[in-house]
Structures are given as C-alpha cells and as structure tokens.
Backbone:
C-alpha cells in the first residue's frame, strides 16, 4: 500500500509499505477517514521529522496521521468478539502503552509510565489505506456519526471536548477561546452546544467568520483590538469565567490569563512554547486556576462521540478540504499556512 510519511522541512512522500496483517491482540482497519491535526504541522515542519521532536524512538519511516477512523477489516488471534468484529465502525485512541500501569489502566495510555507509542508520530498512523493497531485502542463510532466526524474526534475535536470537561464548563459560563483553528473552532462549537456564551479570538478574519457560524457570540481580532480589553468589554468589565488557549503563542496564552475574571479558570491545550506570567497581578490576586489538558482518555473519546451524536452536532462542517492520499503534498502545503479550516483524507 502507499502511505504518507513526513520527511521534515515541509516535505512529505508517498511511500510503499507492505499491507499490514494482524498479530495476536491486534486488528487491521480499513481506514475511511484520516484527519489533519495542528500537531501534524510540527512533524511536517520539524527538521528531521517527528524523530527530531523527542517523542520517542523511531526507526525507519513512519506513516503519518493520528486521527484514524474506519472499519475493522481483519482480526488477530486472542481478540474477543466483544472487543472487535469484522465490519465494526471504529475510531482509534491513537496511543498505546504497557497496558498495566495506572495510566494505561485508566485509559490514558499517552501517559504510560513505561513510555507510549503515538500513532502517526512514533508508530504507523492512518494516512494510509490500512492501519494495524492493538484491539484495546479501538473506540466505537456511534452509527449516527460519519467517518469524518470520527476522525476529528480522534484528536482535534476530542481535545477540545476534553478541555471543556476539565474546566467544568456550564451553560452559565462565558468562555474566551483564543485561536480558532481546528481545535479552537471545535471548542467554540461544543461550548455553544453546552449552552455557554463564547468570545472567539483569532487573527484570521476567515477563521473568525467561521467561529461566528459555529456559535460564537463575540468576535475579537487581537491585532486590531486590545484583546483583554475586548474580553472585559463583553463581560461587564469582569473578564471571562473561563479562558481556553489553543494558539500556543505567548501572546495568546497571556491574553487567556489576563482575560479571565477573578476566581476564573484558564486552560492551555496548545502544544509547545512558553509564557511569562506576572504571578501576583495575573494569578494570585485573581485567585486564578490555571490547568493544562492533554487530549483525552479512551473513555473520554467515547463520551465525546456520544455527546456529539446525542446533540446532533454537525462536526463535518469543520472540514473545509477533503483530499485523496495522492494529494497529500498540496493538502499539507495549504494547511501549513494556518488560515484554512480542517482537512481530511478520505479513502
Ligand atoms: Zn502503561
Ligand atoms: Zn492531534
């Protein structure tokens, strides 16, 4: 089969790999949709590819794509009928660990004490016709959801949902969401569906217009307004109850911190980089809670899918571009500009 591998330095290649066959405890999926996530850009851009980011040991070229969704095509020995059957529509929790440490046992294999594999980065991912995974990584895709929606839930949308749950968002809250890329826009859509009032911030007019269509009440371009002032103007001078940074930019993070009201909660989900906080005025005297949120557990992923199905949330609208695998170079070069919506490969 032909599959996408990142070479680093904004280059990728469609390489030939043997069709996978399942070993004990494994399944092979017929991939139907494989999403493009913001963190893929880190692997795409990095000099030396994913290996250079220190995520773990990588030997040989790795198939990209960590938002897998498809159908079970083959089952290895020792996989029970309750775990997987041929034809099951499934997503993949895109990590695996030792299976026995407290984090693995609670569904958080990405935090495995013995080191985890991240599919699409240190293990073969889903930008391919087929993908082999341990059966315990499978998360059922509700019948009402499309494969594209399942792909989004497998990282970007699931990450947004996980962050909103970590912040205990309620319908009484006003939340400021900094960055309206695929994760921020998902957070806007889900927070609005949970009943919250959303203040959306982004430097791209195109992304702000999409945020409005996804349920944002107030739009702020941090380049043309004072973003903290704009958040306060929209909240009776108090600041937002909750603030979520998806941008990972120092200015975005400090906007979230300073735009949150006293007793508020700030959550960081954007990966990498740093921020400088004046602890007394920005944090202590506001009694502020600052938390980090890294993706979701297997249980959280299933919960996110169920919420989206039950509330009839149209996650497919996130996708502005649908690609075939042989268009991968064009797909990533456009995504690299970070002004478009989300892309997905359909097999
Ligand atoms: Zn473990
Ligand atoms: Zn991701």
Residues:
């Amino acid at each position: 089969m032909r599959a996408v591998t990142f070479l680093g330095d904004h280059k990728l290649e469609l390489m030939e790999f043997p069709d996978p066959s399942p070993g004990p405890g494994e399944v092979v999926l017929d991939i139907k949709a494989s999403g493009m996530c913001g963190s893929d850009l880190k692997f795409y851009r990095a000099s030396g590819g994913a290996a250079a980011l220190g995520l773990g040991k990588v030997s040989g070229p790795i198939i990209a794509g960590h938002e897998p969704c498809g159908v079970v095509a083959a089952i290895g020995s020792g996989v029970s009928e309750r775990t997987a059957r041929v034809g099951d529509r499934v997503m993949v929790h895109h990590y695996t660990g030792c299976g026995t440490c407290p984090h693995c046992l609670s569904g958080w294999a990405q935090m495995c004490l013995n080191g985890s594999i991240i599919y699409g980065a240190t293990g073969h991912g889903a930008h391919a016709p087929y993908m082999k995974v341990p059966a315990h990584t499978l998360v059922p895709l509700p019948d009402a959801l499309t494969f594209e929606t399942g792909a989004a839930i497998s990282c970007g949308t699931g990450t947004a949902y996980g962050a909103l749950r970590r912040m205990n968002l309620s319908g009484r809250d006003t939340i400021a969401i900094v960055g309206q890329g695929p994760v921020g826009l998902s957070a806007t859509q889900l927070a609005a569906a949970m009943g919250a009032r959303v203040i959306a911030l982004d430097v791209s007019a195109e992304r702000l217009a999409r945020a409005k269509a996804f349920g944002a009440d107030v739009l702020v371009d941090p380049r043309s307004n004072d973003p903290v002032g704009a958040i306060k103007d929209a909240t009776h001078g108090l600041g937002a109850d909750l603030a979520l940074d998806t941008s990972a930019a120092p200015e975005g993070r400090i906007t979230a911190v300073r735009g949150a009201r006293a007793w508020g909660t700030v959550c960081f989900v954007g990966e990498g980089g740093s921020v400088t906080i004046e602890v007394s005025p920005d944090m202590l005297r506001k009694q502020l809670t600052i938390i980090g949120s890294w993706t979701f557990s297997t249980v959280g992923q299933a919960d996110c899918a169920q919420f989206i199905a039950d509330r009839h949330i149209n996650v497919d609208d996130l996708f502005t571009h649908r690609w075939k695998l042989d268009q991968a170079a064009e797909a990533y070069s456009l995504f690299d500009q970070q002004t478009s919506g989300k892309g997905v490969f359909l097999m």
About this structure: The first helix runs from residue 38 to 45. The pocket of zinc ion (ligand 1) is lined by residues 97-98, 101, 103-104, 112-114 (CB under 6 Å). The CA atoms of residues 285 and 311 lie 39 Å apart.
